[in-house]
Write a structure and sequence with these properties.
- There is one protein chain.
- The chain is an alpha/beta fold.
- The protein has three domains: about 40-270, Alpha-Beta Complex (2-enoyl-CoA Hydratase, Chain A, domain 1), CATH 3.90.226; about 280-465 and about 525-570, 2-enoyl-CoA Hydratase, Chain A, domain 1; about 470-515, no CATH class.
- It is about 40% helix and about 20% strand.
- The protein is built from 22 helices and 20 strands.
- Strands 1, 9, 10, 11, 15, 17, 18, 19 and 20 form a nine-stranded mixed sheet that branches. Strands 2-3-4-5-6-7-8 form a seven-stranded mixed sheet, sandwiched between helices. A two-stranded antiparallel ribbon has the order 12-13.
- Helix 14 runs parallel beside helix 16 (about 415-425).
- The protein starts with 6 loop residues before the first strand and ends with a helix.
- Mean pLDDT is about 90; it is low at about 225-230.
Length: about 575
């Protein structure tokens, strides 16, 4: 029972790929890199120069110096607000004016939340509060130390009605500060400059607050006080370090500059307990997959209608390309199993593609990438077992939805699906979701889509998030105008042309809505990534899941529920 039967998967052959598919993916990922650089530039070199002229670092310079040398922060929420403009001047807000990132600091994964001082002096735009709260939630779920790099001039006032009120308005950030504190999550704040109104509240609940000589924290800035009370003051005089470190006690330490502040934050993180990951590795090191993760770019066809081998995907993600598939003889449309990532156990769920055996009609294969009765039951049982065993769960989605039709209803797929939804809704173990290509209909929900609270949801550039495909929805919309073969039934040329144009318009609109940048703009997914980087993201997720100790159950493999599940499953064959 103690032995976890990890077995080699995948082939040593470089997977084939069509020239058309490779070219398309290369184009998509080149666009991703260009757009990421665009966001990271903020409002451009001139605004970065203004920051430098004040003797300060830009936000991303602070982040780079905060992270351990030789490591790269993993930003989330890069494309929030991408392509949108605000106010009468139609201003952009790259990244919603805030950088949120996982960063390794003194060997520990931390969540960093940093106002982008190259975008309207770090103002809060529509969706800025939600982006900050999303990062705080990630930190809470993983109990990661949370570091605030504050340089915020308050709300972008022309759009205040879209960021101030509501259940997730700016004030909810301070509730999340409180919830993190209540959960014992360390919070450290560094104030580098402007810290007005809501920006002034954000650091206060932190366990340690640092201020540079250029920093100030105020409920209202000097300009507002001058207008309201006709008093001529400076914001630094009202709420600078002389006031808040030496008089009010709202800050703890006064430092001369950005460099010193970052060094102080790193020193504080070093004082925290070290990561639990080495303990859970049991002295074994992290090993790379036997086959390079870069192969994923060749393995996944750009056309979502083309199939690939799901086991080959897993072979590019797990240590040494070793994997234990659980209940392989049930629900063949989906793979469930365990592998190591960075020397630590993780559960995987991935949709098979192509055709699979139909248990009710063995001689008639049926499409994969669809959830049928046995597959749903298998995933629900596997999800429950991973939760019981404390194994983080990784969901690799490429799904068209649930089985439909009279037979599916007779078999009670609604009930099976409800069982899976209940399980994923109540799991306490960290779950992470990756949209590889298709993420359609209720299948997206069942595979732990964002509404089911994964810690992070990633999308590749191939991802398509929707209830149904554009062509399918066009047919459904114009169903009364079509014959049994879904051809236009009208004989009048003008009417036919009108129907055809309407169907094309519906299809085009839905296809545009499925663009992953649309989802990322609205925070319907957390980040868009290149396929070759997926393994690195999973290493982050799994290690962060094991970093904290004492707040969730992590069972040793001798007493896993998965062993019992596998034994029972074999007995039922």
């Amino acid at each position: 029972m103690a032995h976890v039967p990890l077995r080699p998967i995948g082939s040593g052959e470089r997977p084939p790929a069509s020239e058309r598919s490779e070219r398309r993916l290369a184009e998509l990922e080149a666009t991703l890199r260009a757009r990421r650089e665009e966001v990271q530039a903020g409002w451009g070199a001139a605004y970065a120069a203004r920051v430098t002229q004040k003797g300060k670092w830009t936000t991303r310079e602070r982040l780079a110096r905060l992270a351990d040398p030789g490591t790269t922060p993993f930003e989330v929420g890069t494309f929030v607000n991408y392509g949108e403009t605000f106010g009468d001047k139609h201003l952009s807000s790259p990244g919603a004016g805030v950088v949120t990132a996982f960063a390794r600091v003194e060997g520990r994964w931390c969540m960093v939340i940093a106002n982008d001082n190259t975008v309207a002096s770090g103002s809060w735009w529509p969706r800025t509060p939600e982006k900050i709260q999303r990062a705080q939630t990630m930190a809470l779920r993983l109990r990661l130390p949370t570091i605030y790099l504050v340089d915020c001039s308050g709300l972008f006032l022309p759009e205040q009605s879209r960021s101030f009120p509501g259940a997730r308005g700016a004030g909810h950030i301070f509730k999340m500060n409180s919830v993190l504190s209540d959960a014992g999550v360390p919070q450290i704040a560094g104030v580098f400059g402007d810290c007005i109104a809501g920006g002034g509240y954000m650091p206060i609940i932190s366990d340690r607050v640092y201020m540079t000589e250029q920093a100030y924290m105020v409920i209202a800035g000097a300009a507002l006080i001058k207008g309201a009370k006709s008093q001529h003051l400076t914001s630094l005089g009202i709420g600078g370090p002389e006031v808040h470190v030496h008089q009010s006690g709202c800050a703890d330490v006064r430092v001369p500059d950005d460099e010193t502040l970052i060094a102080c934050v790193r020193r504080d993180v070093a004082r925290l307990p070290t990561s639990g990951a080495p303990f859970y590795r049991g002295g074994e090191g992290a090993l790379e997959p036997a086959f390079p993760p870069a192969d994923l770019a060749r393995l996944l066809p750009a056309d979502h209608r083309e199939s690939y081998d799901a086991m080959e995907v897993l072979a590019r993600l797990t240590d040494q390309s070793l994997f234990w598939e659980c209940m392989p003889h049930l629900g063949e449309e989906i793979v469930c199993g365990v592998g190591k990532v960075g020397g630590l156990y993780a559960g995987f769920v991935i949709n098979r593609q192509g055709l699979v055996r139909d248990v009710d009609s063995p001689d008639a294969p049926r499409p994969a990438a669809i959830l049928y009765r046995q597959g749903i039951a298998k995933v629900a049982a596997f999800s429950r077992a991973c939760d019981a065993d404390g194994i983080p769960l990784i969901w690799l989605q490429d799904i068209s939805g649930f089985d439909i039709g009279s037979e599916a209803e007779r078999q009670g797929l609604l009930a099976y699906g409800s069982s899976l939804i209940y399980t994923n809704s109540t799991n306490q173990v960290p779950m992470f979701t990756v949209l590889l290509r298709k993420a359609s209909g209720a299948g997206y929900y069942a595979m732990a889509g964002l509404p089911y609270d994964p810690v992070v949801q990633l999308s590749t550039t191939l991802a398509r998030l929707s209830v149904m495909e554009g062509r399918t929805l066009a047919i459904a919309t114009y169903n009364t105008k079509l014959d049994d073969e879904f051809r236009i039934a009208a004989t009048d040329p003008e009417e036919r042309a009108e129907i055809e144009a309407g169907m094309k318009a519906v299809e085009a609109r839905i296809e545009a809505d499925m663009d992953p940048y649309v989802a990322a703009r609205r925070q319907d997914t957390d980040e868009i990534i290149e396929l070759a980087s997926l393994r690195a993201w999973l290493e982050l997720f799994v290690e962060a899941s094991y970093q904290g100790v004492g707040y969730r159950r992590v069972k040793n493999p001798r007493i896993w529920s998965l062993h019992d599940l596998a034994e029972i499953g074999e007995g039922l064959r």
